[in-house]
Amino acid sequence: MYGTEQADIFELMHKSRGKDYRAEAEEVARRARLRKPDADSLLDVACGTGAHLRHFAELFGHVEGLELSEPMLAMARKRLPARSAVHSGDMRAFRLGRTFDVVTCMFGSIGYAATTAELDAILRCFAAHLVPGGVVAVDPWWFAETFQDGYVAGHVARTDGRTVARVSHSTREGDTCAMRVHYLVADARTGVRHVLEEHTISLFTREQYETAFAAAGLSVEYVAGLNAGRGLFVGTLLDGAQDQHRP
């Protein structure tokens, strides 16, 4: 779970590393409208600080978000139009009482599902919040078959009188990625401080993702090469499936 300080530096760091939230949002919108040309409402699950959602708000007539971390939720609410609701909730089990043309889950967030049973439950929740013929777009975490054990990354960002250095180390522990992220944050007022994040992220196979889509009544296509190489799953709610998991 992200605390206030981690939420504050999260987007700064990834934007400075070249992550193009706008381009990713536009690609998702394009692929969603290939399947549902009239798509105009979107729910972004595990929306974080709203970095993708604020761009989705410019591409769709109505957007909403769902986020478990309260500090990230607060940041998302500040940056979105007043008409856009951002809900506190867990992607494993949520009921918003309405449906959307598109449901998204970006930046590998779905990897926080601990088991295939949780993955299945998440996709069922997504399907339950779709209109007939609606679209689900999921940016997965690395597959079990593509994960690089022992991967190390590092970056330094400078902005507004603050310098942030980030170093991460990811190792395979069974069917999970254990990622430890160290930040050194320095500014004139507080000096230098250390912030540690520890993440346990499931290494599902491509087949396990596709099975979860199918079990939720969704077609599925995997688009390789997008999202820093993790790819993108895009699924459409099949005829007759919309009543299976209705909230």
Write the SSE topology.
Blueprint: H1 4-16, H2 21-35, E1 41-45, H3 53-59, E2 62-67, H4 70-79, E3 86-88, E4 100-105, H5 116-128, E5 130-138, E6 151-159, E7 162-173, E8 176-187, E9 191-202, H6 206-215, E10 221-223, E11 232-236
Parallel strand pairs: 1-2, 1-4, 2-3, 4-5
Antiparallel strand pairs: 5-11, 6-7, 7-8, 8-9, 10-11
Question: What features would you highlight for this structure?
Answer:
single chain; 247 residues; alpha/beta; Rossmann fold; S-adenosyl-L-methionine-dependent methyltransferases; 2 domains; seven-stranded mixed sheet; four-stranded antiparallel sheet
Q: Would you kindly provide a brief summary of this structure?
A:
The protein is α/β, with parallel strands linked by helices and 247 residues long.
